[in-house]
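Why does residue order matter? Because the sequence determines the fold. Keep that principle in mind as you read this record.
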Amino acid sequence: MIFLYNLLLPLAALVGLPYYAVRMVLTGKYRKSLGPKLGFYPDSKVFSGLGGSPRIWMHAVSVGEVTAAAPVMAELRTRYPRACLVLSTSTETGREMADRLVTEATAHIYYPLDLPFVVARMLRRVRPDVFVPTETELWPNFLTQCRARGVQVVLVNGRISPRSFRRYGRTRFFWKGLLEGLDGLGMISETDARRVQELGALREKVQVLGNAKYDSLASRTSDDLRAEISRKLDIRPGSPVFVAGSTHEGEEDACLAVYRRLLEVDPEFQLILVPRHIERGDAVADLVRQAGFKDIFRVSEMGGGRRRKGNRIVIVDVIGELFKAYSLATVVYCGGSLVPRGGQNILEAAAWGKVVLYGPSMEDFEGEKALLEEAGAGISVADEKELLARMLYLLADPEQLKRRGEQGRLAIAANAGAARRYADLIGRHLAVR
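Structure:
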C-alpha cells in the first residue's frame, strides 16, 4: 500500500502544483512555509539547539489544533522541564498562533511534506522519542518511518468527524494498517473512539480522554485580555455588540441582514465580522459596502497606523483576535453552520460566558454542541429569520442572557482536565523507550 501511495504522489503533485503556484503568486500564501516543508531552513540553529530529554514532537495542523496542543505542551513542560519539545504546524496561520500560544516549545517548525526523503531528513534532525499528532492527522510515509525508527506514535485529542469517517471509510483497506500501527490513541469522545476502531485501530490501544480545548479555553480568558481588545478596537465594555465569528462565504449576507434589524432595536449596536479565512477580507469588505454600510474598519489597517473612530462595523482580517473579540459580544453567531461546512469552534465564545447561536450544520462539533445546549448556552437556528428572532428574544431578557452564558462557561470549566490525561498517556509511552 505504501508503494502504491508513493507511486501516486508524483501524479498528485502534478495535478495540485499549478493550483498552489497560482495561490502563491496571487495571495502570497505558502511562500513562508514551502521551503521548510521541503526541509530547507534558512536558520540552521533551529535544529542545532534541540537539546534535552525526553524528546517529544507534537504536531498541530492549524489554528484549531494548536489550541488543543497548547495545554498539553504546557503540562508536558511542567512534568519534563528538561525535555526537548518540538511543535510543528502545517499552515502559516497555525504557525502564527503557535508562536503566540505555545511558549513552552523548544522549537516551532513546519510539518514536512509526506515525501520519503523529506520525512527522513526531518526525523534525523528532531530525533523524537515520541511523535504526538493531534486530531487524527495521519500521513503514511511519516508514520511508516516512525515505526521503522522505533519512534512511539501517540494520537491525542483524536476526533473523526462524520465527513472524515465517510472519506476514510471508502479507503479503509489503506488506513487500517496505519491505525493498527499507532501505539496509543486518545480520543475526545465515545463516538470518536468507535469510529476510529471501525476504521482499523486496535481496541486495546484506544482510550476516551476528553477534549484538551476545554483546558486551553479555561486558562486563556482574563480581564486583561478583554481590556486589551477593548482598547484596541475602541469598544467600551457593555456596549451592544454582535460578533459573527468564523463566517464562511454565504453567511456574511445573513449576518448583515440581522445586524440591520438589530440597529432598529438599538442604533448603538456594533458588528464585529470575523471571516474564517482572513484572505477573504477584501471580499467581505465589498459585501459590507454593497449592503449599504460605509463606515467599515479593518483590523489589518492598524499596521498602517489607522485607528477605529466610530466605525459601526469592524472586520477582523488578522489571525489571533477572534477569541478576544468574543469577550466584547452581547450576542454571538458562530459560522460554518448556516452553510454546509460542519460548524466551527463554539466553545471560544462560551468560555467568555456568551450564549452562542449557530446554524444546523454542526457535524464536526457534535460534542461541543451537546454540551452547550444541555447547559442552555447553545442555540441552533434553521436560517437567518430564526437567527434574528432568537437574538431579539435573548436581548429582551438581559438577565436570562447573562445566566445562560454563565452556565455555559461553568460547563466548559467542569470539563477541564483532558490535558493532564493526555500527558499521562504520552508519559506511559515514553517509559516504553
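The longest strand covers residues 152-158.
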